[in-house]
Amino acid sequence: MDDDSIVGTALSRGSALAPLFRGRFCDVVLGGRPARVFEEDAVLYEMAARERTFFFLRTGIVKIGTITAAGREIIYDLRKDRDVVGELCAIEPVRRDRAVAVERTCAIAVPFDEVMEALAQHPALLRDFVAMFCHALADAHEQVNRLAADDVMPRLVGVLKTLAVKLGRPAGQHVEIGAYLTQEEVAQMVMARRERVSTALNALRRRGIAQYSTRGRLILDMRALDDYVACLT
Fold it and tell me: What's the pTM?
């Protein structure tokens, strides 16, 4: 497989939650609803909140995660434009996670009851709704499998490949992560101390696998990253 094919494969896989934002479901549920703007670091919803609302992202990036009892932040996922945020409110009325804008974000908020009403009136849309949760569950299983590795490097590589799929865009023969993420935020996704993740990132930089653009965004050599993964297994 050539470099262009590697980049194309990474970028062709859409987000698991994106299909809800397309087609008839979007037309029925969103209608002419106004969008809300969340500036960088603004909270869309907090843990323990009781409002049951879905957020359909038009633009921007949102991180989904939690705060542990020890005060440590963990990032479960990043969602971008055409993704859905807050879907766990369909399970129970009290939020288990929190959502924070990584950059300026435009989102349409839809109350859970109104989503259910739309599904009742258009039962054919239920398949898309169920698929959303199945895809989210598959992503969660992938995260659990990744955490089974004790070594930070395989977990970091898994996170970088996920970022390339969700937020990547072509940068020559490489992929640039289309959002500025601090090493602390990457560490929160890897679920490891920042110092260990920084050491692992530096090792990838020395191999020419990862580098930073002038805007501070990660650039990945996907062919080299895949070759490196093969060496780890």
Answer: 0.78
